[in-house]
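Exercise 7. Given the components listed, write out the predicted structure of the assembled complex. Treat all entries as one system.
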Amino acid sequence: MTWQESMGYVMDALSLGSLYALFALSISVVFGVMRLVNFAQGALVAAGAYALAATRGPFALRIVVVLVVCVIAALLMERVAFRPLRDADPDTLLVASFSVSVLLENGILLIFGSAPKGVELPHYFVQQVSLGGLSFPLLDAIAIGLTIVMLLLLVFFLTRTDMGLSIRAAAGDFTMARLMGVRADYVVSIAFGLSGLLAAPAVLIFMGTTGLTVPNVGDIPVLAAFAAVTIGGLGSLTGSLIGGYLFGILTVAFQALLPSGLGSYRDVFVFAIVLALLAVRPQGIVQTEALRTRV
Amino acid sequence: MTTQQQAETSATTEGDRRTMHMLTRSITTPIVLCVAVVLCAAIASSINAIMADATVIGLITMTMVVSLYVFVGNSGIFSFGHSVFMLTGAYVTGILVIPVLNKKALLDLPGWLGNHQIATAPALLVAVAVSMAVGAVVAIPLTRMGALAAGLGTFAVLNIGYNLASNWRAVTGGPTGLAGVPTTTTVTTATLIAVLAIVAAWLFQETALCLRLRASREDEIAARSVGIKVTPERGAALVVSAGIGAMAGGAYAQYVGSFTPDAFFLAITFNMCAMLVVGGRSSLTGAVVGSLILTALTYELTKLQAGFGIGGLHVGSRPGLEEFGVALVTLGCLIKRPRGLTGGREVAELFARFHPREVDPFARAVDVQQSEPGMPVNTAFVAREQVPADGGLQVANVSVQFGGLSALADVSVSLRRGEILGLIGPNGAGKTTLLNVLTGYQAPTSGVVSLDGALITEASAEARARRGVIRSFQGARLFPRMTVAENVEAACVAQGSSRRRARQEAEILLHRFGLESLSDGLAEVLTHGQQRLLGVVRALAAKPAYLLLDEPAAGLNETETDELAELLRPLPREFGLGLLVVEHDMRLIFGLCDRVHALAEGRTVVDGSPERVRTHPEVIRGYLGGSDG
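Answer.
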């Protein structure tokens, strides 16, 4: 393997990791305030992808449409499905989010049909660039850049704004935050809105790689993101970030290192490693108070 | 015959009667369910060929949902990976029964597999065995995780199974799947398999192991406190349910004849989960009812999906409608009836309405105590009398630090059999922390814990409970969705009693403490006082050598507190145990205890007779002068 090849794999790993990290962060933000691991995050991405597929015109405008669709879909699912289940246990919430996901995906299927829809993207999404002897898809750089920007915005929002502070307070201790006057509906809505906002860049990156969308387009990345949040540590934003990138790196590493006959077993190995990691460290890499039960 | 022998005989007869009662009650469930399934299958399949087809698929799905229930319903951990067991069953059976010529044409199997074809029944047995082995392997990580993390972990299992089946072309045929499986499954065999699954699930449910598992489902921490290990029980349930799932898979393979890995991925996973939660995830009845109802709904929606006409207007084929409808019903059910249509109750319980009568258990128990002083309780329950040297339960020089905060500093306490020790101190004095250190819920930063001379500092809570160190909790922490009798029986089977023996023991104890008329009611409907008392009874059922009660009188009124003291006083002699009581109620402590240990800010203030402690200046300052803590 030449150094150019190695660097190519590093870019791939970081780009894939960015996609998973965005997914994992969206799931974590919501989990923090209502102990919901949202399977429908994948359907949210599907909604955004169809918005992108259905629109033409200036790219900036289409991005705004995707953002609006993702945020509205996220707020709607909270209002209609999850608000009545606010006090349900995490397992019930997870099954409910599975239902919401099936509902949304098949809603899309009913409207758009099952044939894959092509997504038109500006040419720089498929462009190959050279930098100091290194050649890589520009999309890799876009993915990494978008994720860093989103991450900085998220950190700024959570640490510097009142809304962000109330989310962090609620994530620390929801009952206490309510007693201190943080309105539950408000905090949960903001968290869902954030998960919608984070879904939008994931849509762009993901559509950049696939170029087309089907109703259940979000299923595979959401399954990867579930593995990422579990190994990272449920409820920890740092953990989700670490888990997302770790999962991306593992995937690309197996892709690169497995002998050619075994290459297609990449995902088998990755998920087996995830299970093995969990056997050794059941609470994940970053352990939080969220899962601890007090005596 | 002495009074005691008489009492023993009558208690045994009573126990046998109750065993019979419980058996009739519990056998109702599988009989009613099996009859219902057979009837539905017979009627539906006789209507037309399309209905017969839907019936077979429905029966296979039901078998799958029962398999899911065996794990999810009993352990309380949700699984999204159970399609893997169906997948395993389908592929193993398929590969074994496909005629040799077809195998050679389609697959690239090793000789020992490729050159043989075996009959359906032995193939199914092999499939069940392989699937159970798979279950045992995935149980290793899954049973160690918390409930939610384990649920997410099962998605990883699903991915592994799916990707393996999609890529292992030589054996599974890869993404194009297996074809040419002889289609031998009929309505009769599918019904037989569904009935077998129901009976297997019921038999599992009747084991002592499953009672322990259900207790851990209700409250893992409380389950450990009476000696339940949790992990092996969860693993066993996973293995049993993997076996049932493989039967469903085997029947499926031999019904459809050809299939791809996609048949065992997210769509069927969702359907199974939906059926279980719609029916009610914590009962076998729920699993069967849920799959019956959603199978019927799916059938109707599939017809609708193919196209329909409204007033001359024809609506064409609408793929997605079926899944959309099922998801909508499931979501509605989760919101309106989170415990499912059956409420998680079995057939017998659905019709038995239970109202906790106005039983005042404390007064009743005191009555029993006074009127029947020769109760046989002690012969049944004096625990571990053959301990060589009574070194007592001790902590020596124990400190506990949380970060920079010192919760306990150099505390030494000992509890001997036959005595009642009170532990007092204001809020934050470290009483509960000390109790946690004694019972294995908190590791000390330094210092040692010993039991009858042996060091147990490193032993887990459940290991200590099995050696006779039993605690109660500040909240009662009962097993709310289990009956009063089951709460007590779970503690008995945790200590190695059989189900039958546990029933008799529970009967004796519930009678002794005036709760026998509430035996069949769910613990969650009891009054606060009844719950507190049941907490103590459950702890006694675990045959303690040392019993540690954390604020047993919390929330009780003055009369109840007095009666509780009356009930606790004879326990050390009657049950041969040492009793430690943590309390704020000074009247209770000084009226009951032989010795009192006072803590303040994590340090021992004084340890001695009630007289000495009561007159100690620092105790007076803490309790009589200042706030009462």
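Discussion: Chain A has one domain: 3-215. The two ends of chain A are 54 Å apart (CA to CA).
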